[in-house]
């Protein structure tokens, strides 16, 4: 049994934050405690909010911003997430938790739909299971801290890309991470209420995971917050400078800033279990490094995936041409 002082110190979260900061620095990150930002509370009073660790990992023209919120939980605490899927109506790609930002630089981030590997399975919602019941607030609070900070990071990226403050062009990646000592579980696909009632243990209805990707839905309040911050950034940088640097899916700044506020800030969040051997964080850095500098076998997988995608598109076009030809002939016959 931990002594009272050990329990109190561990519960403060300080040892977890210190361990993780040291780990990030060992990976080559420039890391510091605490990133703060301003946001209006429920009374419309501007207050300071923050997340725990802010780290930058700069490599090969990529500026990786790791935004880490730490959640220490006592042994036996379990975080359980409902399953979701890549694709779906929100068209979530395996790399969307990286939240790449390349709208004001000439180079493009090219690994979206066709990227063949995932950090972990995707989930949509989670809860914390304690010995005396469930706690829905813990995970929600961590998401909140990161989600509302994201737009400030996007604003910094816009200014850096437009003003070329890093000398060379860099694609920015804003990677929100919830780092927890809780055990992570994902409910199996197809599990229903009766399955849970009849289960003897959680592992009967859920899989044990080290990392999951949380599909994040931007609500009305977050959209308004994003739009407010982005409007201020746009005013500060100026449309003339923005248009000069713009290299995006649209040439309309109004359209771009609307999409950023409503869909891309953030797309997804990584949830990683922190254990003695840092298996989850090691997996994250392997994933990041493979994105930046893909090994030969990964490039072969990407090329094969791209080839199959192009074949599928060509097949669909062929079917559509036949259908259109058939309709044209039928129309001529009716005439």
Question: What does this protein look like?
Answer:
By secondary structure, the chain is an alpha/beta fold. The protein has 2 domains: 9-293, no CATH class; 304-335. The chain has helices at 4-11, 14-26, 137-163, 193-198, 220-237, 239-245, 253-262, 279-292, 296-334, and strands spanning 30-40, 46-59, 62-71, 78-83, 100-101, 122-130, 133-135, 171-180, 183-187, 206-209, 211-215, 268-273. Strands 1, 2, 3, 4, 5, 6, 7, 8, 9, 10, 11 and 12 form a 12-stranded mixed beta sheet that branches. α3 runs parallel beside α5 (220-237) and α5 packs antiparallel against α7. It is globular and about 85 Å long. The mean pLDDT is 92.
Characteristics:
335 residues, alpha/beta, 2 domains, 42% helix
**Domain module tally:** 2
- Report the count of strand segments: 12
Structural class: alpha/beta
Relative helix content: 40-55%
The biggest beta sheet reads:
12 strands, mixed
Which spans of ≥5 residues are poorly predicted at pLDDT below 50? Answer: none
Q: What is the C-alpha radius of gyration, as a whole number of Å? A: 23 Å
Mean pLDDT reading: 92
Quick one: overall form? globular
Summarize the helix and strand pattern as letters.
HHEEEEEEEHEEHEEHHHEHH
Beta percentage is: 25-35%
User: What is the helix tally?
Assistant: 9
Distance between the termini: 88 Å
